[in-house]
Write a sequence for this structure.
């Protein structure tokens, strides 16, 4: 497993395209530390002015939901249609609602 | 091009998933519904292996593909051309990185993939085993090789595997300048001095057939097209894409006043397509086997860069480890 | 340079030569970095070196075009880059030194980045607005180059035994070329007198402080200054420049007067 240790760790990269927008996941890069990860992300993912801000995070530090839990996690929201404005019927003549 | 090796590999893993029928059915119906498969989703092992092979071949092709054109960075004939060429070769490195990044979501590391490349066990597009003896080759690569690559890649933007499709969208967007700069070089040469015109024609002669072969073997001899199509990793057959490329490119050559080196090439009114002469598949097989003009040189160059860079990569890791130890101590 | 009491109007000849001096320096360094593309120690570094090469090439193109404009004889950036003889180039000798390995390359880059940081900072106040404008843009680029090269100086210097040795070797080999950065050559001395650019000697203190700080962090030893100085800016080049130019200029020399 000495081969394993020789790799530069993987970082996930998030870019804010411009002020007012959220950071969006764009891919990953390899780097030995956070400073270098930002530089590598800049060199790879912003060659055409794609961003004004970069986040990097060690891939191994990301906690993700299990796709196997997707039904339990997300389907219960499916029938709560009363959370959406279209659920309510209001006469057309009533304005500003 | 990136599919060429695929057609001869991977048959063994196709039938291992029989015990997971429902999972497989659910997976396939997702694919059929044009839903995307994401890294942590269940997927048949054969699908995973096929993707790893295809994406890494594609990534290796980008990385090896830096070399034939990189050969001209120091000798580009104007400062403008030099800047464009550096940016283009850099893009290819970047595209390799996007693709390795997509492959890594399938549970294999970039270092493992690079080891396969350097050991000679992984394939990359044979086109990059041809030499670039003149400046015109840089033009021909941009025009023909990138043209063929784009033709191959655009359908992959809708590939069923999310990370691969997203990488491909980014790549296609960035590559649109590659083909145009290549055509511009060819145009300048074709309209230049007689010597330049000859240079352009020679380059077209060198790159035409290899470009045509980039689309891989004929459909009749290509074994796995059907499975890849069912998985929506592939959306058009080799021959369909090849035909599309020829139909688009022959008129471009005519515009340049250059002659495609195929005496049998003719326009067929009935089908509204060009008909091309026989492709020398023996040559294709030979280059694929490693007997092309530059196979050995390309791999040796990559190996040398990897070996000579080892101390640098190790030093960076060693420094980062020391830093972490210092921070822990200070805390 | 702002301290210069008597600002002499800069002659066209002087502005021409000053543009060449800065342009040649950026061009030759870009050419060296271009040699790395496709061969770097990691893909990430291929991209980084290419980015720096492109910045420097951009600076060179601006400066050489401007030089041609000032000269007024219809010479383009390409004429100046590809059709001058080695003895006509006035780049700093440091930038023509070969890549050798990643360690040498990083040392060369770091020493010049630290110098360009000070140079462009001052040049923003040039009496010639075109130089000032270029400096403002180049300064931003240089800050990133410096971040890259100083980061690698520390990583390599304080990395493994091998990397420490290699980068120290690079430093020992290249140090003798740093004297030129601050010694008067005919160009920058006159440029300083005319308020065109900084007095080279005035950049020394800040450069030295910067370099010493990074060398300390990198656990590297600063080599002793040597008496002999190469003077690229006085047309005294090392043997490497003519090889570099032979390669760079081959197309334009082989096919004179042709459009590419």
């Amino acid at each position: 497993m000495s081969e394993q240790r020789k790799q530069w760790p993987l970082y996930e990269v998030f870019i804010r395209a411009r002020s007012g927008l959220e950071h969006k996941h764009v891919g990953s890069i390899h780097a030995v530390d956070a400073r270098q990860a930002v530089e590598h992300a800049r060199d790879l993912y912003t060659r055409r002015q794609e961003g004004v801000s970069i986040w990097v995070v060690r891939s191994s530090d990301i906690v993700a939901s299990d796709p196997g839990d997707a039904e339990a996690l997300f389907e219960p929201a499916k029938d709560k249609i009363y959370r959406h404005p279209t659920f309510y019927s209001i006469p057309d003549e009533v304005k500003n609602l | 091009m990136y599919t060429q090796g695929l057609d001869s590999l991977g048959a063994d893993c196709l039938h291992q998933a029989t015990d997971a029928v429902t999972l497989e059915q659910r997976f396939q119906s997702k694919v059929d519904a044009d839903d995307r498969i994401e890294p942590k989703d269940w997927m048949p092992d054969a699908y995973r292996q096929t993707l790893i092979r295809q994406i890494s071949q594609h990534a290796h092709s980008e990385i090896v593909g830096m070399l034939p054109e990189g050969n001209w960075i120091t000798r580009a004939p104007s400062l403008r051309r030099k800047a464009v060429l550096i940016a283009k070769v850099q893009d290819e490195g970047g595209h390799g990185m996007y693709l390795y990044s997509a492959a890594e979501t399938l549970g294999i590391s970039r270092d493992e993939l690079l080891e396969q490349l350097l050991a000679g066990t992984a394939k990359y597009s044979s086109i990059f085993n041809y030499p670039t003896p003149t400046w015109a080759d840089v033009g021909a690569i941009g025009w023909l090789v990138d043209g063929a690559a784009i033709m191959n890649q655009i359908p992959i933007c809708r590939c069923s595997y999310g990370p691969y499709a997203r990488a491909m969208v980014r790549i296609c967007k960035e590559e649109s300048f590659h083909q145009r700069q290549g055509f511009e070089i060819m145009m300048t040469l074709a309209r230049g001095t007689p010597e330049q015109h000859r240079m352009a024609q020679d380059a077209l002669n060198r790159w035409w057939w290899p470009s045509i072969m980039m689309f891989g073997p004929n459909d009749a001899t290509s074994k796995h097209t059907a499975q890849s199509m069912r998985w929506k990793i592939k959306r058009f057959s080799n021959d369909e894409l090849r035909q599309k490329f020829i139909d688009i490119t022959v008129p471009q050559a005519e515009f340049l006043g250059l002659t495609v080196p195929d005496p049998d090439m003719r326009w067929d009114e009935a089908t509204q397509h060009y008909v091309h002469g026989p492709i020398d598949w023996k040559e294709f097989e030979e280059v694929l086997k490693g007997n092309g003009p530059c196979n050995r040189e390309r791999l040796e160059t990559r190996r040398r860069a990897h070996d000579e860079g080892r101390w640098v990569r190790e030093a960076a890791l060693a420094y980062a480890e020391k830093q972490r130890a210092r921070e822990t101590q200070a805390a | 340079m702002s301290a210069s009491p008597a600002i002499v109007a800069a002659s066209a000849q002087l502005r021409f030569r000053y543009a060449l001096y800065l342009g040649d320096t950026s061009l030759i360094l870009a050419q060296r970095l271009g040699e790395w593309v496709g061969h770097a120690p990691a893909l990430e570094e291929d991209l980084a070196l290419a980015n720096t090469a492109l910045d420097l090439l951009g600076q060179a193109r601006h400066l050489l075009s401007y030089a041609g404009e000032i000269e007024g004889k219809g010479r383009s950036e390409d004429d100046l880059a590809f059709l001058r003889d080695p003895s006509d180039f006035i780049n700093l000798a440091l930038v023509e030194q070969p890549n050798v390995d990643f360690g040498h390359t990083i040392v060369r880059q770091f020493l010049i980045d630290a110098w360009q940081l000070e140079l462009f900072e001052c040049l923003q106040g040039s009496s010639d607005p075109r130089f000032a404008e270029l400096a403002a843009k180049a300064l931003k680029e240089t800050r990133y180059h410096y971040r890259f090269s100083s980061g690698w100086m520390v990583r390599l210097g304080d990395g493994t035994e091998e990397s420490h040795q290699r980068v120290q070797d690079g430093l020992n080999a290249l140090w003798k070329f740093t004297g030129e950065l601050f010694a008067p050559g005919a160009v920058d001395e006159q440029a300083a007198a005319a308020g065109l650019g900084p007095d080279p000697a005035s950049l020394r203190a800040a450069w030295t402080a910067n370099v010493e700080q990074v060398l300390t962090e990198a656990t590297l030893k600063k080599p002793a200054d040597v008496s002999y100085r190469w003077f690229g800016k006085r047309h005294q080049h090392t043997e490497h420049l003519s090889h570099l130019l032979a390669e760079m200029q081959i197309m334009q020399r082989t096919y004179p007067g042709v459009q590419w």
Remarks:
- Chain B is about 65% helix and 0% strand.
- Residues 1-18 of chain B have pLDDT under 50 and may be disordered.
